[in-house]
Amino acid sequence: MKAAVFYDREDIRYEERPIPQIGENEILLKMKICGVCGTDIHKVVDRIVPPNTVLGHEVSGEIVQVGKNVTQFEEGDRVFVAHHVPCFTCHYCNRGNYSLCTQFKATNLDPGGFSEYIRVSAVHVKHTMGKLPSAMSFETGAFVEPVACCLHGFESIALNPGDTVFIMGAGQIGCIQIQLAKYFLADRVIVSDINPFRLNKSLEFGADYIINSKNEHVRDRIMEITDGQGADVVIISAGVNHLLTEAMECVGKGGTILVFAPFKRDLVPLRADRFFQDEIKLVGSYSSNPYNYDKALQLLKMGVVEADKMITHRFHLSQLNEAIQCAHSTKENVLKVLIKS
């Protein structure tokens, strides 16, 4: 089989690999679609994974072989699958913090989603795999994992109907979050970015106001839109450290800031007095958990998240290097990039 293998920032090789052998409780999946995630881009551009790594985790595909003990799936089933599984029994799992579980990050698909065939382990089969509705395309099915991640983030912010939500970053995740915020009955959704194409796309997904942070003063615009009150919820969906400082200036009294992007390990100045005086809450959200997938699938099925409208580019597996460069480019009119085998 073929796989797109990371070696360096601009060195992703389309290589021949042996088809994985499965055990009696496992499944062999033929990858049909794998989405390019912001974390895939981060791992490639910043070289934070070792050479000889196969990335990719937003996977949909068709089952081509099942282990003899697998009863809930069969050959030919169209499915989605996600890449991390918690143990459900450790300190963190018992507190509902599944993505902090040691096993969570240790588990993965074999190899990653940017390969023609994937061995799906027994714990993945049990906890992160699900059948796609007959009318749902593989492309839409590949959105289950990122929508689940966004749902996990929304679990942390206690969004109330009528709230004003400010999303910093109009990329693929930001546009999913716009649609979810509207679904959860946010009154106003404000989106900032420096990319005019993405800002205009955010309007298509329900944003009420857009702010070009390259040309406009973000705090002033937020206060103008909210009559000086600030946003009830601020979601940081771009991995730019200074956005945290900016978010503290834009969140209203009693509001919540959700960090939904990987930051570098730098010190960031914050208005520390606001935590006490204004009862500001600052929370983080990493990945998803197995309890998010069914809801994500249903929201896609209902059209709450319009996956088809988000796709701007499609590349063959052999073109992953070009796909990463496209997704990372500030010049391309790009939102969601998909890889097909």
UniProtKB/TrEMBL annotation:
UniProt entry tagged with the keyword Cell membrane: no
Lineage summary: Bacteria, Bacillati, Bacillota, Bacilli, Bacillales
UniProt organism field: Aeribacillus composti
Annotated signal sequence range: none
Necessary cofactors: Zn(2+)
Keywords: Metal-binding, Oxidoreductase, Zinc
Domain of life: Bacteria
PANTHER family: L-THREONINE 3-DEHYDROGENASE
Protein name as annotated: Zinc-dependent dehydrogenase
Every Enoyl reductase (ER) domain range: 8-335
Protein family: Belongs to the zinc-containing alcohol dehydrogenase family.
Statement: the UniProt record of this protein carries the keyword Oxidoreductase: yes
